[in-house]
Structures are given as C-alpha cells and as structure tokens.
Design goal:
heterodimer; A: mainly alpha; 2 helices; elongated; B: mainly alpha; Ammonium transporter fold; two-stranded antiparallel sheet; 15 helices; 3% strand; globular
C-alpha cells in the first residue's frame, strides 16, 4: 500500500513536467499542474494510510 | 531566480555584508539542534546533540568531496538535456573536491558557502524525528546520502541555473522557482526526509499502545527548546538576508524589509500558536509555541524577501495556526511519531511559505512556478529519499535494539549520560 502511494507520487511530478511542455497557454497549464499536485496528494495519502495499516500496536517496531 | 554563475554582481559592501550574514547563519543550525535535544528524552540528550554535530560534520565533508561538484556553482555549464525544444539543465558540473575554489569569483564562493550551511541544516532536520531510537551511525549515513546525492541535485535545480530556476526564461513562468533562503531546498527536503525516517525506523516503543490514545512523551528541557528558538531567529536572519542578496540579487536597500518580514512572520506564528493552544488546552503549550515559532521562520525562508510586511504577518499567523493542529493530526490520527515535530515545522512551514511567495510576489505567473517546484520536491524527492533510506537501512540499521532504547541512547551509544547526577528511572510509557 505504501509503495503504491510512493509510485503514484512521481507520476504527479511527470504530469507537471508534461504540462510545461504540452500547454503553452496559462489556463490549461495551471489546471494540469493543479491536477498533477492532486495526484501527488492522493499518492501521499495512500502512502500514509499504508503506514498506518502496517502499524503494530504497542510494538514500536521497525516496519 | 536565475543566478549569474561565475560573474560578480555584488558590490564590495554587499560582499562584506553577505560574509557577515553567513557567519551568523550557523546559529539557525545550532537553534534547531537545541530544539531537537530539548524535545527528546533526558536519557538520550548527549547522543542527540553529538548526533547533530556528527551529522553536520558528515554533511559538510560529503558536500565538499562530492556534492559541490553536482551543485555546480563554480561556473560549469551543467548537463543539459534538450527536450521539446527547450534546454533542461539537470545536473551541475564542477571540479571535484572544490579544486580551484580560491580563484573562483567571490559570488561563487559565497554561494558555495551558503550551500554548505544549507546542506548542514537539511541534514540535521530528520535527526530530530528519529530521536530516542536512531543510531549515530545511521545519522551519519543519512547525512552522507543527503549531502552527496539528494541535496546537490535539488540545489542545482533551484539555485545554480537548473531547470527550476530557468522556468521563467524557458517557459515564461514568473521569475522561475523562488526559494531565496532554502524553504524548499532545505526545509521541505528536510521535512520529507524526516517523514521517510519515521517510516523506516518506526515509532518509539510504547508510543502507540494497543488501546487508547498515543502515549505523551514530552520533551525533557523546555529551556533548551525555547532558547534554541531565540538563537535560531538570529541565524534565520542571516540565512534570509544572505539568500536574498545572493540568489535574488536584492539591493542592500531592500534588506531591512526582508529582516522585518522575518521578524513579523515569526512573531505572528508565535502569537497564533500561543492563542490556539491557550484556547484549546486552557494554557499555552511551550513546546508547541516553539514549534510554531520555527514554522513561521521556515515559512519566512521563502517569503520574507518577496512580500511586504502585512502579508508576512499573515503568513506567520497562518503558520502558527497550522502548527498545533497538524502536530495533533500527525500524532493522533496518522500515528506518526515525530518527537521534534520536524515534519510539521519544516515541511508544512516550507509549503506554506512557498505558496505564499507565489501568491504575494509581484511578478505574474509566480504562483505557477512555485507549484511546479513543490510538485517536483514532493513528487520526486519524497519517494527517492524514502527508497534511499530504506536501502540504507539494510546496510546501516537505523534503529537501536530494544534494550538500548530502554536504557537510553546515552548509556547505550556513549556509555554515559548527559546528566550523570540524575537518576534515570523506568517511566510509565513502557507498558
């Protein structure tokens, strides 16, 4: 789960780069970059949820 | 933000002032180190402070031997990839081992000195998140990776004519990614490294029991924490003013306003955190107020040089409101054990400052440039740093064994405590 989120995050980065190349106009470029950031945030949330699922209560152990 | 590599654009007065400011900047590192120590436990205090020092030493050596080459502040053209008709400067190139730095233009020398201090700051941030459980050797290994692989690449992109700095020239987006004092390059990178450390090392034993809330493990010395904040303010003034002068080529006449903005952001953040904790808990919380102060300073790293005083105050207030709420969410809802609050302070403060710099900067399109920079650091460097630390953990185990954690890092790693006259006792957190 955590790795799934961490794989999604670079996808957001590449989307933001694609926006720079593909959309010269400010409007579509801004929208695309905001979408890229949204993808990264989703990835981060998935990674954080994965960390919570891996938690061993009372253990404080290495995951 | 397009620095002019290899050309001296500073007056003699600016050179002297920048040098003096950079001499003050290590106080920010000292302040953060003191806060890290104070927020940890008394039985790990000496190891925590020694850890900060060896991490700084490792980071400086690593950056001198390898990192400065890739950061590329000594005039090399850099490795440029041409894509879609645009040049993308990905990696700096410079002489190994700082060869010839004495003959480099004074601007380049000052830029490299700034980066040395910045890499030291970036390297100690995750150490506070791993307090009371990370080995000294792990701290050194993390610092080596940060200073040789991760930080130099980002520093080149942002400060040395890399593709983020050239967003304005190549794509017409504002003035490129604005980060004059390292909010993204140092603090956001440090904050996500702190998150990676917490994920790799895990939480302290007994922090999250089977039932009920997370166990409170308060810092052992509020005086260290608060005094560290005051020291950090001086160092932050050095960082912010030197950064504005070196990377934005701000005239001397604009620097007093930058200093004023730094003070106002920190003051607004402290006032807001004080008020929030006073309302929420009935009394102000010293450690949260300290974290709020530092969050304000981190936010000022991005914004102080490009906004006017009232927005600076508002940025500080926003930072101060976010801090106690995010600390609580991370600990209680997300079960992230971050003793120093580094993720909240450095990552969220940096994000806030970078976004605010985009909103309040005079040049149009700046907001978009800031978003691209944030997307780059968050989307590329968080997974990269996590995977690097995960791999590193195979060779240099991050976490101390359970017995070492029980007796404290001082006795386990150093053979003696920071406070030998104190009786170290078993506390209630071990259930």
């Amino acid at each position: 789960m955590k790795f799934a989120g961490l794989i999604v995050m670079p996808a957001g980065f590449f989307l933001s780069m694609a926006a720079l190349v593909l959309f010269p106009a400010a409007g579509p470029r801004t929208a695309f970059i905001l979408c890229a950031l949204a993808v990264e945030i989703v990835g981060l949330i998935v990674a954080v949820r994965g960390h919570m699922e891996n938690r061993q209560p009372d253990a404080g152990d290495v995951r | 933000m397009t620095p002019v590599n290899g050309q001296t654009s500073l007056t003699d007065a600016a050179i002297v002032l920048d040098l003096l400011l950079l001499i003050l900047a290590p106080l920010a590192i000292a302040g953060v180190a003191l806060v890290n120590v104070g927020l940890g436990r008394s039985r790990s205090a000496a190891q925590a402070l020694l850890g900060n020092m060896v991490i700084i030493a490792t980071a400086l050596i690593g950056f001198a031997l390898v990192g400065a080459t890739f950061a590329g502040n000594m005039g090399g053209a850099g490795h440029v990839l041409h894509l879609a008709g645009k040049p993308w400067n990905w990696l700096g190139e410079g002489p190994l081992f700082l060869k010839g730095i004495g003959n480099a233009p004074i601007q380049s020398q000052l830029e490299i000195l700034f980066e040395f201090l910045a890499v030291a700051m970036a390297a100690i941030i995750p150490w506070g998140s791993g307090a009371d459980r990370l080995r000294l050797s792990a701290g050194c290994a993390m610092a080596a990776v940060t200073s040789t692989l991760v930080f130099p690449v980002l520093a080149h992109w942002v400060w040395a004519g890399g593709w983020l700095a050239q967003l304005g020239n190549n794509f017409g987006i504002g003035a490129g990614f604005l980060d004059p004092a390292g909010a993204g390059t140092v603090h956001l990178l440090g904050g996500i490294s702190a998150l990676a450390v917490v994920w790799v090392a895990g939480s302290r034993r007994g922090k999250f029991p089977k039932e009920g809330f997370a166990t409170a493990m308060p810092g052992h010395n509020a005086v260290y924490i608060l005094f560290g904040c005051l020291i950090a303010l001086v160092g932050w003034l050095g960082f912010n003013l030197a950064g504005a002068s070196l990377w934005l080529h701000a005239p001397l006449t604009s620097l007093p306003v930058t200093a004023l903005n730094t003070l106002l952001t920190a003051a607004g953040a402290l006032a807001a955190t004080y008020t929030v904790t006073r309302v929420r808990f009935g009394k102000p919380d010293a450690s949260l107020c300290a974290n709020g102060w530092l969050t304000g300073l981190v936010a000022s790293s991005a914004s102080a040089a490009v906004v006017s005083p009232i927005p600076a105050l508002l940025i500080g207030i926003a930072a101060g409101i976010i801090t106690p709420l995010l600390v609580e969410v991370l600990e209680l809802a997300v079960t992230v054990d971050d003793p120093s609050g580094a993720i909240t302070v450095h990552a969220s403060g940096a994000l806030l400052g970078l976004i605010a710099a985009g909103l309040f900067a005079p040049k149009s399109g700046q907001f978009l440039a800031q978003l691209v920079g944030i997307a780059t650091i968050l989307g590329l460097f968080l997974p990269l740093v996590y995977l690097l630390f995960l791999a590193l953990n195979r060779f240099v185990p991050f976490r101390v064994d359970p017995d070492g954690e029980r007796i404290g890092m001082d006795l386990h790693e150093l053979g003696g405590g920071a406070y030998p006259e104190f009786v170290i006792h078993r506390d209630d957190s071990y259930r």
